[in-house]
Amino acid sequence: MENGQIVRAFRKTGSYVGEITEAGQDVCVVRVLAVLKHPMQGNLHHPREVEVPFFHERKAHAFREQIQVPANMVRPYKGDIPKYEDSLKDAVQNLHDELAAKPDAPFSKRSLEALKVLIPEYELMYGIQWPNIAKS
Question: What pTM value is reported for the model?
Fold first, then answer.
């Protein structure tokens, strides 16, 4: 990996397209350009569990935010780079649809509640609307 290279970076439970701004042997600093997969909601140490001390609302990294990613979680990216707002909209919709497919599962219910808190923030920050996602 080298500075300026466009990559796919996996961080925690999200996936991003970005540009390497600092390539290290163990860690790369990546400037986020698009969201490929929105982070899952909840506690990283207890995935898909609801009965945890703190159930996190996990936001996607912001446009042009610089994130540190272990070098082994960075791969070359081929293809067009989607516009950040479009990629975020798609990633949130995909996560919502995945969770809504299991409406009775406790993890899905809790995650959808967390996502409904994040959506108004994204709407305010990026002017994105999700007409297919109920706000209440």
Answer: 0.90
